[in-house]
Amino acid sequence: MILILLFWVGAAFGSFFSLIIQRCQRAESIISPRSHCDNCQIPISRIDLIPIISFLILRGRCRNCKAKISKQLFINELLFGGLFLLQAQFWFAPLIFSSLIMMLILSIIDFQKQMVPTKLLIILLLNNLIYYFFIKNESILTLSLIVIIYLIVLWINKFYLKIGEGDIDIIFILLLILGINGIFISIIISTIFALISAIFILKANRIAFIPFLNCGYLICLIFM
Ligand SMILES: [Zn+2]
């Protein structure tokens, strides 16, 4: 019963974050107007805003005009519900859990728009820096080393690799939590998943990499 409730709370967060992501992408206010159908513009009643349940009851359509509601909202609710279930199972430290929430938001935005919002990246960096200094008790000296390596990698990437800069930023931000061994393993796992998806599932030569980095990150957190 508690697990169902937790999943549902996670789904509610997923619904809330989806709204923020959508409004930020459209440069709209987060507070107003109320959630409405994109097709008929009629505000969605509270009863139709219940995460997961409303989508299933309405079969993914607007109650008023029957236009299809984006499946992405439903998927986001499932993903956040799943993340909250994992939290209940593995009890990640609060700063790790907040990093996982931000990584999930970044993954969704990267998957939808193939972009990385700088503001969210900075919040994730600050979150991980607090963990790095206050939980792991690392020194400013090791951080300086990481920054130097980061700048060298950026320089090499500019001329030879041409990987998305946002992906490199995130790898170094996750390094603050995972450490050097963890980040290597997580890059290997992410790359294998990304290659399998690119070849067999998405059949594309350019895919969003952050969702795969997120999978690698999560697997490392669980098994290391
Ligand atoms: Zn409608």
Automatic annotation (TrEMBL):
Q: Where is the Prepilin type IV endopeptidase peptidase domain?
A: 100-198
Q: Name one GO cellular component term.
A: plasma membrane
Annotated coiled-coil positions are: none
TM spans (from-to) = 88-109, 116-134, 140-160, 172-201, 207-223
Q: Tell me where it resides.
A: Cell membrane
Q: Which domain of life is it from?
A: Bacteria
On whether Membrane is a keyword of this UniProt record, the answer is: yes
Task: Extract the GO molecular function terms from the UniProt entry.
Answer: aspartic-type endopeptidase activity
Please report which protein family the annotation says this sequence is part of: Belongs to the peptidase A24 family.
Identification of the protein by name: Prepilin peptidase
